[in-house]
Amino acid sequence: MTTSPLTNGRMPRRRVLMAGAAAATAAVCGSAALGQTTSSASSAKQERLRILCTGPAGSVPDIVARAFGEALAGVFAQQVVVDNRPGAAGQIAVQALKSAPPDGATWLLGQGAIASLYPTLYAKLGYDPARDLVPVSLAAEMNLGVAVGKAVPAEVADTRMLVEWMRRHPGEANAASPGTGTLPHILEVMLFDQAGLDWRHVPYPGGPPAMAALLGGQVAVLVLPEGLLLPQLASGRLRLLGTSGRERSRFSPAVPTLAEQGHARSVMREWFAFFAPAGTPARITEQASEAIGHVAASAGLARRLEDAAMTAAQSSPAQLAAKIEDDRRAWAPLLVDAGIRGDA
Length: 344
Description:
Elements: E1 14-18, H1 22-29, H2 32-42, E2 48-53, H3 60-72, E3 79-84, H4 91-98, E4 106-111, H5 113-116, H6 118-121, H7 129-132, E5 133-148, H8 159-168, E6 174-177, H9 183-194, E7 200-203, H10 207-215, E8 221-225, H11 226-235, E9 239-243, E10 269-277, H12 282-296, H13 299-306, E11 311-312, H14 317-338
Parallel strand pairs: 2-3, 2-4, 6-7, 6-8
Antiparallel strand pairs: 1-3, 4-10, 5-8, 5-9, 5-10, 5-11
């Protein structure tokens, strides 16, 4: 597989999300019970919360981090900062989390793979998920979509036709992803390796630059979370050939699932979660999980994520830890069998 640099050389982009007026705060809380829960939690916390984000501005993790950050401002902390640390499929953000004090003032918002799959993908991973990442809560779930741009002829209307076209045009058979070892990359491997194709993986440091490459014709295929693809689908600049859920997506019901098209092993959903630094006391992670759960249930946050074809999610720290282990058991053997390496 061909790889490319996964860092963009830019300074981290930070956004500060300030608390609104009392009425806005009450709207986020949604109920007196929420106010009581979060006020008791915030009384033991700092005034400022920093959310490290594994993706660049405009990426899926960035959208999730900002949505939760705005909802939590004035509820869990008086000020919330989203600190974008893209690159290396999330590992740069994880390294930043490792250096943060375990006082509840810094969280990480990242893809589930950083905790569940990276120990299998990387021979020299710069962290130990079991030791360095403390599960806090799920945040969002979404389908992945397989899209093609102008480099692929208009008559290619489904994944079967795409595979046939890629087989006939090996020199043009390349597929972009938001990083080596990300779930979109894994889905591409499962689709194209199992079809016996001679193809090339082109990783980018996040979804937006990968999208730009597809729209510019530098790559033929792109797998990303569905919500990043739909705006360009409406404009006609790309075509969505399949989605990765067990059932058709309610956000693009006319698009068949990959399973419907004969790719039964490609059923998967991307998910993102919050993590805290190693050594964070259980009482802090429990308080954080409760606050995330309450804002995740609010209509405003749910609508904002739905606008990006995502579903808000929440869990206890223990439930998140169990989900990480379930994904590891389900996917790690497949990664080994397929020979997928993040550092290859």
